[in-house]
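Handover notes (outgoing to incoming on-call)

Open items:
1. Secondary metabolism biosynthetic enzyme: sequence verified, structure written out, both below. Nothing else pending on this one.
2. Nothing else urgent.
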Amino acid sequence: MAPLVWLITGTSSGFGLFFVHSVLAHGDKVIATARTLSKIQHLKEAGADIMQLDVTAPQAELDAKVKEAMGFYGKVDVLVNNAGYVQTGNWEDLSHEDLLAIFNTNVFGPINLTRLILPYFRKQHAGTIVFMGSSAAWQGNPGASAYNGSKAALQGMVEGLQQEMAPPGIKTLLIEAGSFRTELLDPKNVKLAPTNFKEYEKYNNWLKGLAKSLNGAQVGDTRKGVETVVDAVKGKGWAEGKEVPFRLVLGSDGIKTVVDKAKEVIALCEKWSDLF
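Secondary metabolism biosynthetic enzyme structure tokens:
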């Protein structure tokens, strides 16, 4: 089988960085991207092609970037929408601009990039789109509404896309990851909206401490999580001979979050079903 060509966003750290090394180890080609090209220069030395890409760029700029990516090998087989970040803060402190920024990166970025690559995939009658979602889409957390909401919005959009793309033969994979040991919660990567209200000062300090205490102590093994996804795309390892589900929940804590929420909603519906 000819090597697959992967286009991966957000490869300067975390899942994206692990994806690059895993895909290269499988003998495939990688076009690694990041907002700041200097941060991924070392990946070129590892065997990847690199390209500057900001998923929040205007549509015309993204169009040019997709064409640039196609120029490396004449095709792309797998798009991994990985770029994203965490915004924390209370509802009263989150500005409209805060919300626009996280939705632009976590939701509209993947949507816009995917929309531009779909014509190429349809022409090939093949292609796989991977969305790095989160089990956070299944629950609300105080101080994390912006992040929860962005991942929930992505979940809803991608579920519709999967059904639209099945007839043309394009595969869609939504990864809903629990907590993995990446740099996602590193203080330099978590944006906390400063509070303007004394009632929230103690809580905001708690949020700062929580992110710091969880950073690096997450239960999930990032390397194992990435290998699970790569096997799902390539139909190897655990996925060989199996029909890979559209929704893949990663990590023991991620599975618990989804199962607990599903049970909670089922119980709620059963309790109040007589109203209708």
